[in-house]
Amino acid sequence: MTESRLRSFVALADTGSVRAAAGRLYVTESAVSAAVAALARDLGVQLVQRIGRGVELTPAGLAYEEYARQVLGLLEQGRAAARGEADPARGPLRLAAVTTAADQVLPELLAGFRARFPDVDLSLEVGPSRHVWRRLADHDADLVLGGRPPAELTSSVLATRANDLVVVAAPKVAESFVLGTTPWVMREPGSGTRATAEAYLADQDATPPQLVLGSNGAVIAGAAAGLGAALVSRDAIPAELSAGRLVIIDSPGTPLHRPWHATSGAAPTATTRLFVDHLLEAPGWTRI
To answer: Which parts form a coiled-coil structure per UniProt (predicted)?
Structure first.
């Protein structure tokens, strides 16, 4: 049950194709097939089955997939911990951030950190809320910047920063805004902001028409273009407010206070702690 066999299995699970998995891993197709077959022999169960020109996981494979990801993540986390403890300024740091945090919180932080610690092996993955928390649960990320971590996740919140969500719209839309009937521009399913907006509308017993757009920037642009109202972070719209393209609506129960959290696994690496120390020098961040 070697690391290479696990990586082949996970790549196959992700891509659904031996050819695509081989391309991802820079190995031959026969190497991927042999690795997954050997892993199946070790376990004594069939892990994949052919479906047309591709493959899919069997029920046993689906059950094993989560464990395989966690094992690989723990191996990477162990490497990061060892290298970071030896020299934090030269260790690896795997960041993950929800899209909104990546847009409005991370750019200056990363630029400053890069300038101070150019030898840190830094990577960043951006995605919806459920994706980045999954990365932390699978030990595929050292630190997540997002909202409040899920209650079932074993994690350590290292720092927080205030973040207020407000309802905004173009001035003409705001003039005739009615909570239950004015259209709303929403993020895609899986987004933390989308979940918060849905919960807010439910609390207000409002069911307005909805238009789904694929990113925070698209939602802000759509609202400014007059497509409807939107729930967004106040920090994301200073230019639009100053230019008069958006105005804040005094909607019941707003602003919503949804602070940012810098969250690691249960045992943050030395390089993770180095980044958090840098983050705490930025305005608004507080150590937990």
So the answer is: none
Cα 41–chain centre separation: 35
CATH code for the domain defined by 164-257:
3.40.190.10
Q: Are 32 and 11 in contact (CB under 8 A)?
A: yes
d(CA 48, CA 55): 6
Q: Is the peptide bond before 118 cis (omega within 30 degrees of 0)?
A: no
Read off the pLDDT of residues 252-282 as tens digits, 9 standing for 90 and up.
999 999 999 999 998 899 999 999 999 999 9
Pull the structure tokens for residue 230.
Answer: 């939107």
Helix or strand (DSSP H, E) at 100: helix 99-104
pLDDT at 85: 85
Distance of CA 214 to CAs 99, 127, 128, 166, Å? 10, 11, 10, 19
**Residue 83's pLDDT is what?**
83
Nearest to 254 by CA among 218, 203, 213: 203
3-state secondary structure of 5: helix
> Rounded to the nearest 5 degrees, what angle is found at the Cα of 24, between the Cα atoms of 18 and 30?
35
Low-confidence ranges of the chain (pLDDT < 50): none
Fold exhibited by the domain 76-163+259-287? D-Maltodextrin-Binding Protein; domain 2 (3.40.190)
**Ranges of each domain in the chain:** 3-57, 76-163+259-287, 164-257
Give the C-alpha separation, 258 to 280, whole Å.
18
